Amino acid sequence: MTRYQYYLAPMEGITNATFRRTYHTHFKSMDKYFTPFLCPHTKRDLTTKEKKEILPENNEGMYVVPQILTNQAEGFLETAGKLEQYGYREINLNQIALSKIQTFHSTFGEDNQIYSQEEILDRDLTKLFDEGMKRQKEESNQELPFYEELRTLYKTNRREYNRIEKLSLRSRTGRDAMRVDGVTLSGDTLVFLKTNFRKVFFLVSETAQELSVLDALKYFKAEKGEQSVERIEQHHKHINMALQKFRAMQDEELRNQENAEDVQNTLGAQVSTAVSLLNNFIREIDDNELYMKIVQLKTLAERGVITYIPKRLQRIQKDLRRSGGKARMTHDEALAEIVEMAKKYSPYFMAQESQLSEQETNAEIILSESFR
User: Fold this and answer.
1) At 199, which helix (H) or strand (E)?
2) Which parts of the chain have pLDDT scores under 50?
3) Residues 230-255: tens digit of each pLDDT
4) Which of 133, 34, 127 is nearest to 88 (CA)?
5) CA distances from 230 to 214, 222, 248, 369 (A)
6) Residue 311 in 3-state DSSP?
7) DSSP letter string, 141-183
8) Which of 184, 234, 271, 298 could hold 278 in an S-S bridge, CB 3.0 to 4.6 Å?
9) Residues whose CB falls within 8 Å of the CB of residue 181, separated by 6 or more in sequence, listed in order
10) Antiparallel, parallel or unpaired: β 364-371 and 326-327
11) Which among 3, 80, 89 is positioned nearest to 40, based on CA atoms?
12) pLDDT tens per residue across span 24-49
């Protein structure tokens, strides 16, 4: 008998990490869960919202496939590398959605354009995969030997593994100057920071520079017989510089997120009509619980995360207007449908609010090493 594969399709604003966890807990598991689109940007890291989607602890027990929406080889490769660091081995590169957007541009003209001309998709994706294969061949999965070494330690010397695992936070040491892959580490400090959302590595000298996981592994690696030395005078200063750099990265992400929300919250005709309709009907609600549910529905309409809500409310508004002397929908029928919508989407609103209220914790200093 043929066994069919069942996938949870991505729906922006609906099938987020909260939805996936709830579904996976209470219903039969899907074979694969696809995330909403991740949109790479070469000048910034993934946003806090995007990181919530892909963090392994938010997707325990699920086979999750991240989706990347891009037309730039550099952005695709950079994001794919970050996802690999989180343990993902399958990524979905979506070309169809961009193609549909471009069809929209072609049909309705340049004034309705979402992407600039230089961002329009190059349908020849050969460059993406040629560069991806080249980079994969060059790196030859250089991280794997480090993880194998850790696994070997766990299997052969559990006592030492447990000792290292129990080391306190803010572990710090000094090391002699060394050279790794043509980079001289002298007068520098390595800093490993961690929050509930991410792990970040910095190499600090005159400035704080974020490191890839691979570079961090190479720089932190020490031979068994290596002796510690006195830390450099700037050790504490370098740690503060790393913390300041990290906070600056957080602030930039927050600004980018707020700018994106500002664009999204610019009310179009459909959303304006929906909000106006709800404002008119909400005055008739005496039940406090139901009143709050309609307020929640209004908020969802304003956010625009579920396009069906403003679209359906706009249709209700049109059906209330008289056409040929008779309205298609009575006032009571409209109110009844609005109430049903409010009840239906209230659980989603509460789940989304819970996710939005989750804040990134302050960075903890896990490990720091300075080189003489």
Assistant:
1) strand 199-204
2) 95-124, 140, 264
3) 999 999 999 999 999 999 988 887 77
4) 34
5) 26, 16, 30, 10
6) helix
7) TTTHHHHHHHHHHHHH-HHHHHHHHTPPTTEEEEE--EEETTE
8) 298
9) 218
10) unpaired
11) 80
12) 888 888 989 998 888 776 555 677 77
